[in-house]
Amino acid sequence: MAGHEKRPLVTVLGASGLLGTAIARELASQPIRLRLVGRRPTAVPARRQAEVEVRTVDLTEPGAVAAAVADADAVIHLVAYITGPSTWRVAATDPVAERVNLGLVEDLVRAIAASRPARPPVVLFAGSMSQLGRPSAARIDGTEVDAPLTAYDQQKLAAEQILQAATEEGVIRGATLRLATLYSQGIDSAMLDRGVVAAMTRRAFADQPLTMWHTGTVTRDLLCIDDAARAFVAALDQEQAVTGRHWLVGTGVATSVAELFGMIAKVVSTHTGRPAVPVLSVSPPKHSAETDLIDYVLDPAVFEAATGWSARVPLMHGLDGLAAAIARETATNAGETAADLIATAERGS
């Protein structure tokens, strides 16, 4: 991204979320212009070399995407539609999901094509490992034929294909990073993490049992959000190497749900001083998706070779960091509640 007389401009769409916050923190240390665009207020890293601009907008509004990416040398697209507090499930007939997951990518390509920049901008898209559908081997290596099983994954794949076509036409220089299951290690606010790891960690702090479906033998590749953020920065640094295809970004390590929940229970126990909460087997609920019971583990070797990136955060270390963050969050909330009660009592006396 060198060669510009002024600092290059990187726009992050979806900057107020967990991954966007981590990416913003990584990019803020570079001598660039950084435009952070989110639906909610976005945290600005305290220590930074970047010139940071924050925009709080609804990208589904007409012209919003075009304004957000105007003059950008690179765009990181992280926006996705979430239907619940801890899930990525969407209905095939949900027009809002299609507008966000697919329509915003169409808006992005149209806006860049209309502006006719002298050099096509880099566009990095956050994909998902489950876009593949059902893996044919223990580890996904990127050579498989995609046959997505859910509406969400179908929309993500369609968006990826739009970016691929725009790259072939010379409108953008696009690439997709298909990410493993993400979790936070608590460097940024733990309240941003609505995934299963955070949900079960909070249950353990509440002294509630952790419930896994069936016997918990389903395996996942668990990637710390900070490693994922570094992957996007590495892709920007190696833009020529990554342009024009999708890449698998994970640890390559298979962890069963039973192992994960047992680790969470153990880690939280060290922070609370209580016995580890039990891990119980239950039947899947009616709203479960087919992909919930499929093993997803990535082989990131090709991305590692292309960019020099590799995952650094061991799972147990990450879980301990998240538990510490939630413990602080719990203590702060308890303190605020106590202060409110005291203030109410004083006003009534």
Automatic annotation (TrEMBL):
Pfam families: Epimerase. InterPro entries: Epimerase_deHydtase, Lipid_A_modif_metabolic_enz, NAD(P)-bd_dom_sf. Residues 10-250 form the NAD-dependent epimerase/dehydratase domain. This is NAD-dependent epimerase/dehydratase.
